Amino acid sequence: AQLKGLQKSQILPTEDYEEAMEMIEISQMDIFNLLDHNQDGQLQLKEVLTHTRLGNGRWMTPQSIREMYAAVKADPDGNGVLSLEEFKQLNIRDFHKYMGSQKVKMSDLVRNSQHTWLYQGEGAHQVMRSIRQRVMRLTRLPPEIVEHSEPLQVVRYDQGGHYHAHMDSGPVFPETACSHTKLITNESAPFETSCRYVTVLFYLNNVTGGGETIFPIADNRTYEEMSLIQNDVDLRDTRKNCDKGNLRVKPQQGTAVFWYNYLSDGEGWVGDLDEYSLHGGCLVTRGTKWIANNWINVDPNKRRQLQFQQEMARYAKEGDEAQNEWTVDKSYSNVHVEL
Ligand SMILES: [Ca+2]
Ligand SMILES: [Ca+2]
To answer: Where does the record place the Fe2OG dioxygenase domain (predicted)?
Structure first.
């Protein structure tokens, strides 16, 4: 990975933000309804915080939201919640202007790390092949599924690095396409996700301080998105609240954690997203942290997955270099997967 060179996993937001946001055609009323999770006609702080996209890659905290309210005079009665009336008075342009004007540091982002992708397919270095084969044995998944999954992602977190809690894959609706099967099955869906059925996370070194993998709500009895944020404690915040999560795994060189991001559909295939798989990388307080991720991609739509596998087998047989290259490198070289 060092030889190949690593790229920033997330780049600082650009000034294009304001422009880009103005392109989105969505009414203020629609935004309000979307944010008002409990439908009480008020926007509580946590309802705004839950929609991480509003931050344009910047991690929002209760503090940063309050600062924003103050800057754009969003909450004139000062009760900490936005009524529909207050929200209507708000000039969304001021909000975008404010967001665009903020000086953002790497530590303010959702993710502060560097990564690269390493090829594991036919002809790859023996170490890379052996990792793939071990993943096959560990997960007991068919070789044709594992072989056609994403390459190995190697990630470096320097001191001060983190990755706030997230899911490795997205929910799948009938109108959602999977990144890996999209081109081959000719889907033109409005939504796309990476359909990562399984995550195998390898720890490549011992970290001097911090850098644990946190699963904030693992083994909770019930899942409630809004209960992730209580008062000013956001359990997803891996710079501040890793000590409050349910399961914390300390990096140990040569070990790995493995989990499913989706439940079973009860019929031997991939079902709904498992929301308990929410996880993040805690702040590295000392030293450097190196990990690698193997994701196993499975389309919850079985027909599309089988079609994809058939096509891939056909390409391999024809020895179509161009296609092979596309599947292993091109589609991942610039992909930033925000989940
Ligand atoms: Ca509300
Ligand atoms: Ca108010």
So the answer is: 148-298
For residues 189 and 292, membership in a common domain is answered with yes
User: Hey, how many other C-beta atoms are within 10 angstroms of the C-beta on 54?
Assistant: 17
Residue 269: give the domain boundaries.
111-333
| Residue 61 near residue 48 (C-beta atoms within 8 A) | no
Closest ligand to residue 74's CA: 2
Percent of the chain, pLDDT > 70? Answer: 90
pTM above 0.90, yes or no: no
**Ligand 2 centroid to 166 CA: how many Å?**
30
How far is the centre of ligand 1, averaged over its atoms, from the C-alpha of 36 (Å)? 4
Q: From the CA of 43, how far away is ligand 2's center (Å)?
A: 9
Instruction: Single out the residue in 88, 108, 128 at which a domain terminates.
Output: 108
Residue at 243 is within a domain: yes
CA distance 312 to 303: 14
Question: Which ligand sits nearest to residue 48's alpha carbon?
Answer: 1
8-state DSSP, 109: B
Q: How far is the CA of 79 from the centre of ligand 2 (A)?
A: 5
CA of 81 to the centre of ligand 2 (A): 4
Quick one: 122 and 101 in the same domain? Answer: no
Residue 310 inside a domain? The answer is yes
pLDDT tens across 101-156, in order?
888 899 999 999 999 999 999 899 999 999 999 999 999 999 999 999 999 999 99
Q: Are residues 155 and 62 in the same domain?
A: no
If asked whether residues 67 and 93 sit together in one domain, one would say yes
Interval 223-265: pLDDT, tens: 888 889 988 999 999 999 999 999 999 999 999 999 999 999 9
The answer on 136 and 81 residing in a single domain is no
Residue carrying structure tokens 């940063």: 64
Taking CA atoms, 272 is separated from 38, 154, 172, 173, 310, in Å, by 23, 27, 7, 9, 25
